[in-house]
Amino acid sequence: MNSGDDMLLIHAALDGELDAAGMLQLERRLAQDPALAADYGRMRALHEVIRGTIAKPMAPAALRQRVSRLAHPSEPRVTPAWRAMAASAVLAAGLASVTTWLATSSTQETASLTQTLIADHKRGLLSGQPVDIASSDRHTVKPWFDSHFALAPQVVDLGTEGFPLAGGRIEVIGGQPVPTLVYRRREHLISLTALPAGTLRSPGTQTVEGYSILGWRMGETDYWAVSNLDPSELEKFRQAFETAIKGG
Amino acid sequence: MPHLDDAYGLARWLTGNSTDAEDIVQEACLRALKGLESYAGGNARAWLLAIVRNTAFTWLARNRPKALIASENIEAEPVADETATPEEALIAKADAAALEAAISDLRPPFKEVLVLRDINGCSYREIAEITGAPIGTVMSRLARARSLLIAALGRAF
Hints:
Chain A is α+β, with helices and mostly antiparallel strands.
């Protein structure tokens, strides 16, 4: 298979993302390059077979109804009273399950806070998008946080200590947006969330679901670091971070 | 609520389950309604799909932590057998079941761009907006997703 930019061009052509000039150029290349033309043929076949066999899922009628009730709760109901009651019971049950789910993230108990922090860290890894802003430059990350938070966290670069800054993201904990810094250690990531002091029950490292999580307090801020690094390395990270904050 | 089919389709592909997809879409719609004030105009479908996507990933991280392997840098990971090259005619004959299985097996970052593009019909720009990834990343993930599908189909024959 051809590599790199040629393949991207083939996909862009199939997806209708090339302009006329780009298309013309690619057609000329395809005419001269049998290997590229073979790749193009394979991708076109895949494109067409997906289009022909995979139907776009349709939202079930019940979901459509539930959602439209969310959007228009005050709409006058013409249904008989018992049906309206049954329907609202169904909606209430649906809402209750959502509320329970949200409540698990809003509980301020340390146990579920650590689970939330771990879930957020994992979500970043799963989605392939661990940061909302990717930058190793603290002078880019800090203003980005400033624009989102009244009290933005201090951002330090720990590249010289072996923990380069990867960027930052926003998490929602207990219904509040909170800043999270992301650092790298070799191929691993460390999510560092800054919370107002008061979330910490027992400082120190815990290991939960295979992730190390370390909480500590500095001034008015509780810091929570999550990673699949070894606890001792997370401790090194804490020391480097504290030293850098105090020095800078 | 417009774009509900798109929202449901994305959630169903990401979770692989229609009941979970319904819960996710309902939750996403609640969030969307709450966030309507912050909606700055622009592409409403992309805005809703972005909320669905984030809700789905949060849900996956909480409920399927074991079924999914988290990756520190998915772009850099080598993938075995990606170079399999079945003939064009064989690919064209792939049946729906084999194709669906191959799509379901894709890792989430690859699956979402493929589903958004080939099933929901989103443009590259919309996908970049929905996933928050730069357009170059969208393009390379899409190319990778399709190569992986072709390789999987090649193995299935």
